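Field notebook, page 211. I keep forgetting to write these up properly, so this time I am using the form the group agreed on. The chain and the ligand, NAP, are recorded exactly as supplied. Prediction of the bound pose follows.
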Amino acid sequence: MKIAFLGFGNVGAPLADHLQRAGHEVTLAARSADAESVQRALARNAALRVAEPAAAVAAAEVVFLATPYAANAAVLPPLADALAGKVLVDCTNPVGPGLTHGLQSRSSGSAEVQALAPRARVVKAFTIYGFENLDDNRFPAADVKPMMLYCGDDAAAKQQVAGLIGQLGWQPLDAGGLVQALHLEHMTLLWIRMVRMGQRSPHLVWAALQR
Ligand SMILES: NC(=O)c1ccc[n+]([C@@H]2O[C@H](COP(=O)([O-])OP(=O)(O)OC[C@H]3O[C@@H](n4cnc5c(N)ncnc54)[C@H](OP(=O)(O)O)[C@@H]3O)[C@@H](O)[C@H]2O)c1
C-alpha cells in the first residue's frame, strides 16, 4: 500500500519506519527535503521516500496526519483537494493548557480535521498512548496483544486502518463513528496524566478482553 506521512517526528517517524518494514511504500510528505526531521527519519530507515506534500498525498492511498494539532489549520487546507477520497489517519490530539482538552470538549480534534479536509475519509488512530509505544509495542510476558482503538465514519477506511494496526502488532478495536474521537482524546489525556505527570512507565497500554 502507498502511504504518506504529514509529520514524522516522535509519532510519525516510528510509524513510517515500521510500516515500511511491513512492506508498504512509505513517503515522507516533506516541506523541505533538507529538514532535520527528514534526515532523522531517513537515518532510521533509508528506504523511506521523500516527496513534496501535494505529490506525496496525491500518490498515496492512506495518509497519516502526525503534525502538532495546532498546525493542522495550516497543513490541511492546501491539501484538501489531494486528500479527496483518501484515508486520512488522524494521529493528532488537541491538548490544552494544564493537560485539558484543547477544544474544551466542545468538539473533537478529529471533527476539526474532517472539517479542514472535508472529502477525506478520516479515521482517528494511534493516539491513545505516548509515542514510546508506537516505537516499541512488544510485551513479551503478556498473553494478550496491546489494544489500539480507532474510530471513523467510513467502514472501508476503518477496515484498511484496522489492517495496518494489526500489522503493527496491535489488537485493533473499533470504537465506532468519528463521534467517538472526543472520548479517545479524553483517553489520551488520562494516559498522559497517569504517565507524564505520574510515575508510571510510558510502556503502559490497555488490553481488551471480551466475551
Ligand atoms: N508525542 C506523543 O507521545 C504523541 C502520542 C500520540 C499522538 N500524538 C500526537 O501526534 C502529533 C505529533 O506529535 P509528535 O510528538 O510526533 O510531534 P513532533 O515530534 O513535534 O513532530 C511533529 C512533526 O510535524 C511536522 N510539522 C510541524 N509543523 C508543521 C507544519 N506547519 N506543516 C507541516 N509539518 C509540520 C514536524 O516537522 P519539522 O520537525 O520539520 O518542523 C514534525 O515532522 C501531535 O498532534 C500529538 O498530539 C503525540
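OBSERVATIONS:
- Residues 37 and 43 are 10 Å apart (CA to CA).
- The chain has one domain: 2-195.
FOLLOW-UP: compare against the apo run.
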